[in-house]
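Forum > Structural Biology > Help requests

Title: Can anyone predict the 3D structure of Mitochondrial uncoupling protein 1?

Hi all, first post here. I have the sequence for Mitochondrial uncoupling protein 1 but no way to get a structure on my laptop. I'd be grateful if someone could post the structure tokens.
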Amino acid sequence: MADHGPKTNISLAGTFASSAFAACFAEICTIPLDTAKVRLQLQKKAVAGDGVALPKYRGLLGTVGTIAREEGMSALWKGIVPGLHRQCLFGGLRIGMYEPVKAFYVGKDHVGDVPLSKKILAALTTGGLAITIANPTDLVKVRLQSEGKLPPGVPRRYSGSLNAYSTIVRQEGVGALWTGLGPNVARNAIINAAELASYDQVKQTILKIPGFKDNVLTHLLAGLGAGFFAVCIGSPVDVVKSRMMGDSTYKNTLDCFVKTLKNDGPLAFYKGFIPNFGRLGSWNVIMFLTLEQAKKFVQRIESS
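Reply #1:
Sure, ran it for you. Structure tokens for Mitochondrial uncoupling protein 1 below:
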């Protein structure tokens, strides 16, 4: 049987395992930046009449510093348990299913480079499907991350991630676990398309440049490109999603979008652009570098 290169000669289970592992590893490395990003996005403008209230969190590293100083280093890894639940499910499904879904869209007789439109379509499909399954993990992660330093005597809403799942179901009903599903599906389908399709496309383009091989440098450059595209395209939906999940006063996605635009101006949708790129850029680089190595490792095991 002809060998079709590293993409096709690895089993579906192997692809899922590699993807879930790479996504979890990237999550552990970058969750402090994600916690800082959620806090920055949920920070609203100071209301006139408060005197000159300075924002509590300023900048990505400033926010990381403030959280570590006020709440201890461990607060930066708040939400890591549901974060890993999410990456196992969501990362494994969206990344692991991308190649098979892409192959399905182009048809089994396709020869040559896959058109960009088909890559985008495949990534939109796997991103939307995966987050529909993983939404509860995302909700719990945001709820745990958004809880800052509490005044003495005020108990925490949730003692941990499992307690958060059960408390939300008990107090708000099972459906509440899918709060923010609309913007979350939009965000993750779009970001998945921006990440996976651009990684695929950037890598394909780099490999056509003389002297470039399918190695760590190529994976690094393609990963950075993927992170940048993902933030440019996904930032507005990301802000809406964080605000809806962290604050239950919004009626729906449109209501949140309109209120944010009216109260905070259009730039609010790119609030935390630098932390978002710091987070997604580094996340993508770590994830894709780990993924390429994990797939090689699984391939060696499967072929031995």
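The chain has one domain: 12-303. The domain at 12-303 is CATH 1.50.40.10 (Mitochondrial carrier fold).
Shout if anything looks off.
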